[in-house]
Amino acid sequence: MMHSTTDGMAAYEQLKQVPGFLFVDHVAIAVPRGQLDRQVAAYALLGFCEIHREDVHGGDQVREVLLQIGEGPNLIQLLEPLSAESPVQKLIEKNGGRGGFAHVAFRVRNAQAAFDYMKQAGFNLIDKAPRPGSRGTTVFFVHPKSRAENAFGFLVEIVEDTASAQR
């Protein structure tokens, strides 16, 4: 039995609603200690605007700066480790002391719904449940070896931001 393109598109639209992915929230870049303000200044030369700065403690141990790209919803997140125990510091050490790509974050409508869906679908989730993130968000992380087959190969963060649903 052949399925029409219309049937396929309807099924695709229905599936998109289940995990509720909206857009790329941010690309995170690890920055070695002492270089954060210089990196912010370099991005400012490109017209990127600092919209948030926060020290995030707990397991993350980073100073975060969010830079808005133009007028759109997509951000660059610069992450400077606050301690030797920071996962970002460990990433920098693996990079031979250099900063670089840390993760990609996707915005979702509802972090708990996305978490439940991804767990049921067999994704390797780092967090045991969605948790508070910076700027009042709810987040969880997906392991680079996200699935036994077809792994993403990089760290993924899932972000719900109820304060600015479409920023």
CATH topology label: 2,3-Dihydroxybiphenyl 1,2-Dioxygenase, domain 1
What does the average pLDDT come to? 89
What structural category do the secondary elements indicate? Answer: alpha+beta
Assigned CATH architecture: Roll
Q: What count of domains describes the coordinates?
A: 1
N→C terminal distance: 44 Å
How are the strands of the largest sheet arranged? Answer: 2-3-4-1-5-8-7-6
General shape = globular
Beta-strand percent range: 25-35%
Rg is 17 Å
Structure summary, number of beta strands: 8
H/I helix tally: 4
Task: State the CATH superfamily name.
Answer: 2,3-Dihydroxybiphenyl 1,2-Dioxygenase, domain 1
Query: Could you spell the SSE succession in H and E letters?
Result: HEHEEEHEHEEE
Notes on the protein architecture:
- 24% of the residues lie in helices and 32% in strands.
- It has one domain: Roll (2,3-Dihydroxybiphenyl 1,2-Dioxygenase, domain 1).
- The chain is built from 4 helices and 8 strands, in the order αβαβββαβαβββ.
- A hairpin with a 5-residue loop joins β6 and β7.
- The protein is of the alpha+beta class.
- It has an 8-stranded mixed β-sheet with strand order 2-3-4-1-5-8-7-6.
